[in-house]
Amino acid sequence: MNLHGVLAIYGFEMNRFLRTIFQSIASPVLSTSLYFIVFGSAIGSQMTEIGGVSYGAFIVPGLIMLTVLTESVSNSSFGIYLPRFTGTIYEVLSAPVEVGEVILGYVGAAATKSVIIGTIILATARLFVPFEIVHPLATAGYLVLISVTFSLFGFILGIIADGFEKLQIVPMLIITPLTFLGGTFYSISMLPPAWQTVTLFNPIVYLVNGFRWTFYGKADVNIAVSLGMTVLFMAICVAIISWVFKTGYRLRT
Amino acid sequence: MEPIIAIKGLEKTYDSGHKALKGIDLDIRRGEIFALLGPNGAGKTTLIGAVCGLVRPTGGTITADGHDISKDFRAARAKIGLVPQELATDMFVTVWNTVAFSRGLFGLGPNKKYLEKILKDLSLWDKKDAKIATLSGGMKRRVLIAKALSHEPKILFLDEPTAGVDVELRRDMWQMVRRLREQGVTIILTTHYIEEAEDMADRIGVINKGEIILVEDKTALMRKLGRTEVVIGLKEPVDTAPTISGHTPVVSDDGLTLTYVIDGDETDEAPADLIKKLAQSGLDFTSINMNRSSLEDIFVTLVEDKV
C-alpha cells in the first residue's frame, strides 16, 4: 500500500479545510444554533414530550444529521471536483496509487471534517438543551459511519458533476428536503398511516432514527434495520466508485 | 541495452471513433533525450498520456523500465515524472507544499534536502512559501517541473515545456534538462520550437495522424535529409550553368545567381571544395551565401509528403 500517497491526499484535503476553517465551522454552527433557538427553546417549550424525550432534545440527533449529511456530501464532492475542474487531477491519475488509496485519502479527509463539525454541533446543542446520551460509543460509531457513507456519496457526485452548480443541487434539493421529511423534527408515528408508509421509502429516515436510538435508546425504526440500511447504502457507493475507477469514467479518456 | 520505455502496437480509439494512435511501436533508450515532433492533433499528448496512465489504450503494450504500465502500474509509475502541457496548478497552496504533496503521492517519504535542491535548481527557492496563484506563468511551469521531479523519476516527460516561457527561462530550463540527463534521467519531450529539438535531442521521432513516421538519430537525420544550398552572386551573367564536381546549379533568369545544392550525405568539406573550384574556374563572383536546411525544413517536408 502507498501509505505516503494516502497521507499526501489526506493532508492536502485537511489543509484545504483548515484554510477555510471559519466558513467550514461557523456557518453550520450558526445555522444549527438558530434551529435550536427557534425549534428547541422558543417553539419546543410549547410542545409535548415525544416518547418521554423533551422536544428540544428530540430534534438534536436529526439536526446533527442534517449538517453532517450536507457537509459530507458537499465537502467530498468539492474535494474531487476541484482537481477535475482545474486539471490537477492528472497528477493523482498518473501516480502509483490504487483506487482504494485515492478514496481513503479524499473520503477519509471529508469524513474527518464531518465528524469534527458534527461533534462541535453536538457540543453547541448541549448549550441550548439538556440531554443525556444513552449509548455514547454507538453515537460516535454512527457518526463516523454516516460521515464515511455520505462522503463516499459526495465523491461519486463530484465525479459525475460537470459544473459547480450541480454540486449544490444534490445537498440542496435532495439531502436537505429528505432530512426535513425524514423525521428530524417529528416522530413518524405523528403522521397519518398512509404517509408513514411513504416515509419508509425515504432512506434518511433510517439514518436519523438510527442516530436517535444511540441518544435515547428508542426510535421509530429498529436499530438493526437502520444500521442495515446505512451499510447497504455505503456498499452501493463503494461499488459505484470501484466501477468509476475501473472504467475511467469521467477521469481517464 | 534494454529500452527504458518499450511501446508495442499501441492503439487508442476514442469512443467517438477517432483513432488517435494507430499501432505505435517505439523504443526509448536509457538516458537519451528524445524529441517527439508532430503537428497539432498528431497524437503526441495522447501517446504521453497512455504511458503515464491518463489515457486508457485500446490496444498494445507499454513497459517502463521493464514494468508493464497496467499490470505493474505501481512500479512503472513510480519511475515516471510528467510535466503536462496545461498549466494545471492548485491556486492557494504554497510552492513548497505542492511539491511535498507530489513526492508523497508518488509514495516517497519527506526529503527536505532533495526538495530544496530541486527548488534551487529551478530558481524557485525564494518563492517556496508563495501561493501558486501569485506566481507568473513561467514560474508556474517551473513549479510543475519541480512537482514532476519531486519523486526522483528515472523518466521525465515534458509536454511542450517551453510554451509561453520567456527566452531566458527557456535557456535555464534546457540547461536543467541537460543536467538531468547527465544524472541519468531519460527525457522525452514534445516541442513546437523545432530548433530546440535540433539543439537538445539525441534522437527525434516524428508523429503524424497517430503514426510514427520516422525515428532517427538527430545527426543521422540531418545528414540524410539535410541539404546545403550555396548561392553565388556573379559579376557577369552566364548563359550556361557551370557544373562543378558533379553539381549543376540552378541559374537565375538574369544569369547573375547560381544555386548549388549539396546533399546532407556528402562530406562536410563539399561546400568549401565547390567554392575553391569555382574560384579556380575563373568565374568572377561578388557574394556567397550558404543555407543549411534546418530540422524544421526536414520536418515540414516529411509531414507534407505523408499528407
From TrEMBL, chain A:
TM helices/strands, residue ranges: 20-38, 50-69, 103-129, 141-161, 167-186, 198-215, 221-245
UniProt keyword annotation of Magnesium present: no
Protein's membrane topology: Multi-pass membrane protein
Sequence ranges assigned to domain ABC transmembrane type-2 in this UniProt record: 19-248
Subcellular location: Cell inner membrane; Membrane
A Pfam family this chain is assigned to: ABC2_membrane
Keyword terms, alphabetized: Cell membrane, Membrane, Transmembrane, Transmembrane helix, Transport
Coiled coil: none
PANTHER family: INNER MEMBRANE TRANSPORT PERMEASE YADH-RELATED, TRANSPORT PERMEASE PROTEIN
Family, similarity comment: Belongs to the ABC-2 integral membrane protein family.
Protein name: Transport permease protein
Native source organism of the sequence: Asticcacaulis machinosus
UniProtKB/TrEMBL annotation, chain B:
Record keywords: ATP-binding, Nucleotide-binding, Transport
GO molecular function: ATP binding
Pfam families tied to this protein: ABC_tran (PF00005)
Domain ABC transporter: 5-234
Domain of life assignment: Bacteria
Protein name (database record): ABC transporter ATP-binding protein
